[in-house]
C-alpha cells in the first residue's frame, strides 16, 4: 500500500479519536462544589476539601475556605476505618484471629465483656457501653493499657452479639489486643502497618490532647489526617489491599472488613445512620470499622463509608467505580450549632451528587 495513503489513514484515525474524546462528557461537579461552598460560606466549616476518583483516574481535588493540601484535620469517627485496617494487618499475619475473645489477651475481662470477640469489638456488637458513663473519667489516660483498665469495672449493657450499638469503647479493647499480640504500642503499630506503607506522612492517632491532660490513642475518634493521606488509604482499599504495586492487606481480610459483621444482632433500623442518612432499611449495616450503606441483592456491600460527627466523610462506591473523601471539621461553637446543622448526616449527600454528575450526558445524545 502507498505509504502516503497509509499516512492519511493514520492521520484521519487520530483526528477521529480526538473528536470522539472531545465529545466524551466530563463529570460536572458544580452541585458538589456549590453545597460545600455553601457550608463554608455559612461558617459551618472554616475550610474543607474534596477528592474524587473514578475508575482509577482523579476527577477532583479541590479546596474551600482556608483548606489547602497541607491541612491536617481531626477526622473523628473516620479514623475507625483506619484503626480496623491496622488490626486487620495483624490478623493477616496470624497473630490475631477475628474470633479471639477479649479475655484471651486481657484476662481481667472475665465477664461478658471478656467473651466478646475481636470482630464484635470492631462491629459494635460486643455489648459494651458506647461511651464512658458520665460519672467516670473520660479519656484521662496516656496509653491504651490505662484506657482498658478503666473499662474493666464497667458492666456490659448487652450480651456479645446481641445488639448493635454504635460507639467507641470496645475499639479500645480491640486496639489493646493488637498491642499485646505484636508487642508494640498503638501508634507505632499503626504507622508500621498502615501509615508508612501508604505514604500517609501526616496521619496519626496520638497525641490527642484533652482537658484531663492525657494523650489518648482513641481508635474510634482520635485520628487526624490530610486529604491526600486518606485518599491513599482509600486507593488501597478500593484495590483490594494493594497500593501502587505493594500489598498492604490481603484480599481476604479486606473482604472480611466489608462483610456483614452484625450477624443477626438486633439493629434499631430507624434510629441508625444508614436509615437516617440514606433511607435504607436493611439490618446488615456494619462491617469492621465501616458502614455498609447500600447492598446488592446478594447482600454484598456496594457503598461503604466511615462518616464522622465532625463532617469528614470517606466512601467507596463499588457500584460505580468511585471513591472519595470530603475532609472537614465542623465548628461546633459557631453557626452550625445555632442552626442545628448535623455534619454527621449532611455529608452523605456528597457521594449522591457525585453519582448524579457521573450520569450527565452531552446535549447531543
Verbal overview:
This protein has 365 residues and is an alpha+beta fold. The protein has a single domain, classed as DD-peptidase/beta-lactamase superfamily (Beta-lactamase, 3-Layer(aba) Sandwich). Helices cover 37% and strands 15% of the residues. It is built from 15 helices and ten strands. It has a six-stranded antiparallel beta sheet, with helices on both faces. It has a two-stranded antiparallel sheet with strand order 3-4. The protein has a two-stranded antiparallel sheet with strand order 5-6.
Descriptors:
alpha+beta, Beta-lactamase, two-stranded antiparallel sheet, 10 strands
How is the secondary structure organized here?
Layout: H1 3-23, H2 30-41, E1 47-54, E2 57-65, E3 73-76, H3 79-92, H4 102-105, H5 112-115, H6 118-121, H7 144-151, H8 169-182, H9 186-195, E4 223-225, H10 227-238, E5 242-243, E6 246-247, H11 251-258, H12 273-278, E7 291-295, E8 301-305, E9 311-317, E10 322-329, H13 335-338, H14 343-346, H15 349-358
Antiparallel strand pairs: 1-2, 1-10, 3-4, 5-6, 7-8, 8-9, 9-10
Helix pairs in contact: 3-8, 3-9, 7-8
Structural class: alpha+beta
Quote the distance from N terminus to C terminus: 38 Å
The CATH superfamily turns out to be: DD-peptidase/beta-lactamase superfamily
The strand count comes to: 10
Q: What is the CATH architecture assignment?
A: 3-Layer(aba) Sandwich
Number of structurally distinct domains: 1
Enumerate the spans where pLDDT stays under 50 for 5 or more consecutive residues. 1-25, 361-365
Strand percent estimate: 5-15%
Given the structure, what is the number of helices?
A: 15
Shape: globular
Mean pLDDT: 89
What portion of residues is helical?
A: 25-40%
Give the biggest beta sheet. 6 strands, antiparallel
Provide the succession of SSEs.
HHEEEHHHHHHHEHEEHHEEEEHHH
Strand order of the largest sheet: 2-1-10-9-8-7
Radius of gyration: 22 Å
**CATH first level:** Alpha Beta
- CATH domain fold name: Beta-lactamase
Amino acid at each position: 500500500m502507498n505509504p502516503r495513503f497509509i499516512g492519511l489513514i493514520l492521520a484521519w484515525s487520530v483526528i477521529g479519536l480526538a473528536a470522539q474524546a472531545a465529545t466524551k462528557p466530563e463529570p460536572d461537579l458544580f452541585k458538589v462544589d456549590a453545597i460545600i461552598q455553601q457550608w463554608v460560606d455559612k461558617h459551618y466549616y472554616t475550610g474543607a476539601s474534596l477528592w474524587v476518583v473514578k475508575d482509577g483516574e482523579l476527577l477532583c481535588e479541590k479546596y474551600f475556605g482556608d483548606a489547602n493540601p497541607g491541612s491536617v484535620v481531626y477526622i473523628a469517627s473516620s479514623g475507625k476505618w483506619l484503626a480496623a485496617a491496622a488490626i486487620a494487618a495483624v490478623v493477616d499475619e496470624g497473630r490475631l484471629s477475628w474470633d479471639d475473645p477479649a479475655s484471651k489477651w486481657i484476662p481481667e475481662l472475665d465477664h461478658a465483656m471478656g467473651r466478646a470477640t475481636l470482630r464484635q469489638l470492631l462491629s459494635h456488637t460486643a455489648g459494651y457501653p458506647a461511651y464512658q458513663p458520665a460519672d467516670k473519667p473520660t479519656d484521662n489516660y496516656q496509653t491504651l493499657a490505662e484506657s482498658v483498665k478503666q473499662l474493666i469495672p464497667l458492666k456490659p449493657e448487652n450480651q456479645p452479639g446481641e445488639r448493635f450499638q454504635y460507639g467507641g469503647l470496645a475499639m479500645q479493647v480491640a486496639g489493646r489486643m493488637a498491642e499485646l499480640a505484636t508487642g508494640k504500642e498503638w501508634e507505632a503499630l499503626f504507622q508500621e502497618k498502615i501509615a508508612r506503607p501508604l505514604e500517609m506522612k501526616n496521619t496519626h492517632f496520638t497525641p490527642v490532647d484533652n482537658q484531663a491532660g492525657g494523650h489518648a490513642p482513641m481508635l474510634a475518634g482520635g485520628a487526624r489526617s490530610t486529604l491526600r493521606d486518606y485518599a491513599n488509604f482509600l486507593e488501597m482499599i478500593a484495590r483490594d489491599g494493594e497500593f501502587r504495586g505493594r500489598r498492604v492487606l490481603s484480599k481476604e481480610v479486606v473482604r472480611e472488613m466489608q462483610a456483614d459483621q452484625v450477624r443477626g444482632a438486633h439493629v434499631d433500623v430507624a434510629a441508625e445512620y444508614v436509615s437516617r442518612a440514606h433511607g435504607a432499611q436493611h439490618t446488615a449495616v456494619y462491617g469492621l470499622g465501616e458502614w455498609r450503606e447500600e447492598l446488592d441483592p446478594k447482600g454484598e456491600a456496594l457503598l461503604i463509608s466511615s462518616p464522622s460527627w465532625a463532617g469528614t466523610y470517606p466512601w467507596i462506591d463499588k457500584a460505580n467505580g468511585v471513591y472519595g473523601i470530603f475532609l472537614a471539621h465542623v465548628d461546633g461553637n459557631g453557626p452550625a450549632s445555632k442552626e442545628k446543622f448535623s455534619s454527621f448526616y449532611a455529608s452523605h449527600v456528597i457521594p449522591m451528587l457525585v453519582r448524579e454528575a457521573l450520569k450527565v450526558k452531552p446535549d447531543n445524545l
